[in-house]
Amino acid sequence: MEFKIKHKDNKARVCEIKTAHSSFTTPIFMPVGTAACVKSLDFLDLIEILNAKIILANTYHLYLRPGANIISKFNGLHGFTGFKNSFLTDSGGFQAFSLSKNSKHKDEGIEFKSHIDGSKHLFTPKSVLDTQYLLNSDIMMILDDLVSLPADEKRLKLSVQRTIKWAKESINYHKENLKNGLAFNNNIFGIIQGGTDYEQRKICALELCSMDFNGLAIGGLSVGEENALMYDTIEGVMDFIDENRPRYLMGVGTPQDLVEGVERGVDMFDCVMPTRNARNGTLFTNFGKINIKKAEFLQDEKAIDENCDCYTCKNFSRGYLHHLFRAKELTFFRLASLHNLHYYLSLVKAMQEAILKDSFSEFKKEFYAKRSLS
Questions:
Q1: Quick one: DSSP state of residue 83?
Q2: Residue of 45, 90, 257, 305 marked catalytic
Q3: What span, in angstroms and rounded, lies between the C-alpha atoms of 184 and 214?
Q4: Distance CA 296, CA 292 (A)
Q5: Model confidence pLDDT, tens digit, residues 257-268
Q6: What does the pLDDT look like over 201-220, one tens digit per residue?
Q7: Element of type H or E holding 68
Q8: Does residue 267 have an active-site annotation?
Q9: What are the strands, taking DSSP E only, across the chain?
Q10: pTM to 2 decimal places
Q11: For this structure, is 270 an active site residue?
């Protein structure tokens, strides 16, 4: 992977990342394609309409169904899905933790039961990488020990200790594979844990920054803590993350979270929010959110956002989308998802442009001002 910082405006920055399958500029938002599919969209929507350069897929779900060996027979995720740009795959540790009622975090890994058939499995630092090698993702996330918040000091310390231990196992295993001529297209990111505890985040960040990861992620946030505490945690941990690698804030979040994260030096984001909210009738606009299911939109001939140039806004009215939602037509999912993802992708592009002009602070003020008028 090639990484280059193009420009900085205080801590906010524009960077270029090049993988074996695509090049893209940060700040970047990655649509979530959990089961190798962004819900209701196909790869033509993603490439030709949204111009998405990288999407996320989930190791846990693909490991269970259809199985990494099956996907490998299609030459990995790119051949399996038809999406020729980059894939990032997370380790699946969060899903093993959240979807299994009886998951157990052990020193060697995470033991869990499948949410599909109840079968028992064990994710280890090596096994999740082996799965991701078969998926042939461009960026692979290591296994980490995630805890929900709030958590007591003892559990946070254990999480950091395990995360560091598993990070060492992961990077050493990856180096062995590289030495043996394998995994040369696969990049590996470490994940910094520690909850909202400044000292634990510092310990974890310094340890992982000493390892040869291609990029570093901030995990374990947006899991129950207040927004202000999340922002303070991001800002605090940035002091211990070197700037010469991509910085990825996992699973976050709202448009406001993206703006606040970029201001603090974050490069990459993912979240299910734009597509999940779309399916529930919540649409993002430059002036805030609207709920298309409300009766007030029944006869509304305007686009969702008259300043939006997405496929949906250029072709369909609020009244029609209201009808589709109320009639439970599946077409609504696609049109609403296209709009919300276009909004997120346009937001990060606007932030890129503001950073390059050294006007990010003005951009942020205007971003919040538009919402205060709605």
A1: -
A2: 90
A3: 12
A4: 9
A5: 999 999 999 999
A6: 999 999 999 999 999 999 99
A7: helix 68-73
A8: no
A9: 2-9, 12-18, 23-26, 28-30, 54-58, 86-90, 104-106, 109-113, 120-123, 139-141, 187-192, 215-218, 247-249, 268-270, 282-285, 288-291
A10: 0.97
A11: yes
